[in-house]
Structure formats: C-alpha cells, structure tokens
C-alpha cells in the first residue's frame, strides 16, 4: 500500500465518526463496608466513595442503586444519615444524587451528615451501590494507523523474504 493511499484512508476514517464512550461496570460496595460511624469518619458522596475504592477521581464515575447493568444507571447512591432518617427504624438508608454529600467540615460528625461509605444506619446488602467508569472506544483513526502499520511491516517482511530467496 502506498503511503499516499494509506494517509487518505486514515484521514477519511478520522472524519467518519467520533470515538464512542460508554460506562463500564467496575465494582460495587455496601454502605456499611466503610469505617465505624463513631471514628469521626469522612463523609463520602457515592462518586467520592467509588474514587476511594476503585481509583481515579470522583468525576470519572456514575453510580447506580439498581444493578451492575449500564442501561440501568439511575445516578443515585445509598447513604447513611447520622442520627438516622427513618424515624428510628433500623436499618435505614436514603437514596440521594450520586454527588450529594452533607457533612460537618467534610466529616460524618453531626446529625444530618450523610455518607455512602460508613457503618451506621444503612446496614445490609439492600444498600449496595454500583460504580461505572466512563471508557472511550478506540478512534477509527487509531485502528487505521494500527492496521496500516501491520500491513507495512508485513509488506516489508515479504519483500525481504523474497529478496533473500534470490540471493
């Protein structure tokens, strides 16, 4: 394949479509897997807890309270509320926005503070949060360059092999 033809194909593929991105399930946790509430714990939003547990930054994540299927993401998270939020009924968890956090100086310290990662009121498997991270698909241009490179290497090897056979 001539270089000019290869570059024309790569350029056409680059303009054809942008890279597609989609959420990839990375893991889950229950609210009560966090530290005990009276240890002056940090108050985590669902996205903050996902970043703590799975790496990266909070904005990398979408959280769901439904299941591990990307089509079902509801952008909510289960939290425990310091002092309870269900009129004393135990266990008790509350669904809030995935980035919601109410805290006292960033801590789970006073009544009304919330955390998606603390052992307090929201105990049990029914308070499971599912984390999804955005993942980009390879761009068409990247595929074109990679395949073109393989073709050029194959062609060079073929020419070399045929020249060695005649020597």
Structural summary, described in words:
By secondary structure, the protein is of the alpha+beta class. The chain has three helices and eight strands, in the order αββαββββββα. The chain has a three-stranded antiparallel beta sheet with strand order 1-8-3, with helices on one face. A three-stranded antiparallel beta sheet has the order 5-4-7, with no helix packed on it. Helix 1 packs antiparallel against helix 3. The longest helix has 27 residues. The protein is elongated, with a radius of gyration of 25 Å. The model has no long low-confidence stretch (mean pLDDT 83).
Core attributes:
single chain; three-stranded antiparallel sheet; 30% helix; elongated; 3 helices; 167 residues; alpha+beta
How large is the radius of gyration? 25 Å
How many beta strands in the DSSP annotation? 8
Q: Estimate the strand proportion.
A: 15-25%
Give the overall shape. elongated
How many individual helices? 3
* Structural class by secondary-structure content: alpha+beta
Strand arrangement across the biggest beta sheet: 1-8-3
Helical fraction: 25-40%
The mean pLDDT is 83
Short overview:
The protein is α+β, with helices and mostly antiparallel strands. The protein is built from three helices and eight strands, in the order αββαββββββα.
């Amino acid at each position: 394949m001539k270089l000019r033809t290869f570059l024309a194909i790569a350029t056409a593929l680059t303009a054809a479509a942008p890279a597609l991105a989609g959420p990839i399930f990375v893991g889950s946790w229950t609210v009560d897997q966090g530290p005990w509430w009276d240890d002056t714990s940090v108050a985590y939003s669902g996205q903050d807890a996902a970043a703590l547990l799975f790496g990266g930054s909070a904005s990398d994540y979408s959280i769901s309270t439904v299941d591990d299927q990307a089509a079902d993401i509801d952008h909510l998270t289960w939290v425990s509320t310091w002092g309870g939020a269900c009129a004393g009924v135990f266990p008790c968890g509350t669904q809030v926005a995935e980035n919601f956090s109410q805290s006292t100086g960033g801590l789970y310290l006073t009544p009304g503070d919330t955390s998606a990662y603390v052992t307090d009121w929201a105990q049990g498997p029914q308070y499971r949060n599912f984390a999804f991270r955005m993942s980009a698909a390879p761009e068409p241009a990247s595929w074109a360059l990679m395949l073109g490179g393989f073709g050029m290497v194959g062609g060079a090897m073929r020419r070399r092999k045929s020249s060695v056979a005649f020597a």
